[in-house]
Amino acid sequence: RSCSFTGFGTVQSRKLAKSLGRSSVRSRMSLRPPKAYNSLQKGALIWDPKPLQVKKIFEALKKGLNEYLEAHQAELDYLSGRHKDTKRNSRLAFYYDLDKQIRCVERYIRKLEFHISKVEELYEAYCIQCRLRDGATNMKQAFSLSPATKASRESLVELYRNVQECTEDMCFIEGALEVHLGEFHVKMKGLVGFARLCPGDQYEVFVRLGRQKWRLKGKIETDDSQTWDEEEKIFIPNLHEKFEIKVTELRGLATILVGVVTCDSISFFSTKPQAIIVDITELGTIKLRLEVLW
Fold it and tell me: Does residue 150 fall inside a structural domain?
């Protein structure tokens, strides 16, 4: 039984290798990683792909893009209706202005549709590579349990190579998908602490997303208003990293840690600005208010 399994596995592994070659992302798709993702090119150091996280981001991204598409389609329908009414009234200047607006919205809708199709294409290719990698991994485990023969050792080497290639392709697609995530415009709305915040208190807020950092200082004024040296920062979304927020109180030369929290960015892929209120302290006595616009 073991011998027949080994022979069958050898044939299957060869078929799988051919399948992997045919379905390789680099051979099927003309994807070229931008300069920011040169580390994802073949042969470079790679990390472990995270399919579940990529799925969550993909679903949130697609939902947000469809929201934008529906909003602009509604705007186009409204402008088209006014366009017809204006044409009957023969107000030429206003008519041509509306015509220009309609063409502009139509172009933007086409860009959105292309953007959505590109994201779907990338995710479909990602899922294919994920399934191929799972199949090769399962076969590799099965071969490792079978009697050691020359054929099984060759199959193990070949399957190991296939797993590595699929892993590289998945990381490559993750980098290509990351390019399509847009931007997060984060606005500082201040601290909320009621009795914990007193006039003259000074705080430092440190926000990090992967390698992107934002450090700003603020002060509580005598009228309980707050002044901050910066009000807005643009972050490039990341597939795997969460927002890390650290707040410290400045007392002369000393600094006192108020709290550190992490915040997931999946809910930020929306057409409407998202008001974020996070508890900085464990009891929620000091909160941080942010607004995120995608």
Answer: yes
